[in-house]
Amino acid sequence: MNLELSAEQTAVRQLAKDFVDREITPYAAAWDRAEQVDRGIVKKLGDLGFLGLTVPEEYGGSGGDHLSYVLVTEELGRGDSSVRGIVSVSLGLVAKTLASWGDDRQKREWLPRLTSGEAVGCFGLTEPGTGSDAGNLTTRAVREDGGTYVIDGAKTFITNGTWADVVLLFARTGDAPGHKGISAFLVPTDTPGLQRREIHGKLGLRGQATAELVLDGVRVPAAAMLGPEGKGFSVAMSALAKGRMSVAAGCVGIAQAALDAAVGYAGQREQFGKPIARHQLVQELISDIAVDVDAARLLTWRVADLIERGEPFVTAASQAKLFASEAAVRAANNALQVFGGYGYIDEYPVGKLLRDARVMTLYEGTSQIQKLVIGRALTGVSAF
Ligand code: FAD
Fold first, then answer.
1. Which of 93, 106, 229, 325 is the S-S candidate for 361 at Cβ 3.0 to 4.6 Å?
2. Which fold has domain 123-230?
3. d(CA 186, CA 165)
4. How far is the CA of 361 from the centre of ligand 1 (A)?
5. Is 198 a catalytic site residue?
6. Where are the beta strands (DSSP E) in 176-308?
7. Ligand 1 atom with least separation from CA of 126
């Protein structure tokens, strides 16, 4: 693994840095308070090609390698995790999965719109009764004569849910137990019978639209199925494996933002007649954050490298997501400590970093689930 970035990777990282500093960071606190990111950000992300990274150019994508995707995601996470999540889901979980599993017609129908930002995607796996145990989901798609599927069920915690034009939806199509009976569908969100309700009161990621979806007799043609019948769980797990790299990259961004804020504040806040940066225990807080940033970044870059080289990456992605998400929480918490009482007030950025970081150990597989994935790979024994 070469840690020196290529000219293209350096350029795309700089492009993302400039964009975040100009278009995201100045507005992130206001979006957080308003509980809504400015929707115009989606078009801007699309115009820069950030919604099409790694997607083939023939389908409207902007190409590029997985490390470039990680670099951009890291920068977006540094600016605002709500915006980063829009990209991680619409591109990372939906467009990239569609590019891998879709047929030519499905790719032509959705990818140019998703990668340009004209359309937004969401990922509908979690249900009220099945989170970690997603293989036991109960939403059902019944095939009628003529090939139409009729879908009934409910999904919850769906990122981009009320913004999305298409949901990559997982439903049970057969009587096979557990994950064997699940298939994936591309369901336009304006299909009759699909209702969406935004979930308010989140601890963090407040700028992001998180929603419940209720499906009551939603009819889709057989051509809406993504991948083979009964392979939906494999579709979901392949999406989440790469998605975990994306979450990890976003966590690196949070930790980097925590480090930048802590260093800046420690240099100008004075107590006991000198900048607090000169107190050794404050330096300890800052050095702990710095080590977390670098360790999380290296684990995340390794996943991108493995994917590019066609090597197995699923366990490495769980390791990166586990470490980076826990590191982001620690880093934001340490930064808040550096800020003292001011860190507790939302005029300063570190409280939001901590609130946003907190969900990272929960979604796309909790920390406990990542440990089971890693443990299974090492021991050959499944604890699920
Ligand atoms: P549970 O599965 O009920 O877990 C509760 C606790 O039990 C956790 O600590 C868990 O680690 C532990 N636990 C469960 N099983 C085990 C086990 N076998 N061994 C040890 N411990 C265990 N889902 C989507 O499909 N699409 C989205 O876009 C999406 N976005 C989200 C956005 C937000 C803001 C949030 C909060 C969630 C989102 N989710 C999404 C759902 C998320 O992936 C789930 O919340 C997550 O998978 C955990 O499921 P759960 O909340 O039902 O917790």
1. 325
2. Butyryl-CoA Dehydrogenase, subunit A; domain 2 (2.40.110)
3. 10
4. 9
5. no
6. 182-188, 194-198, 210-220, 225-226, 270-271, 274-275
7. 25
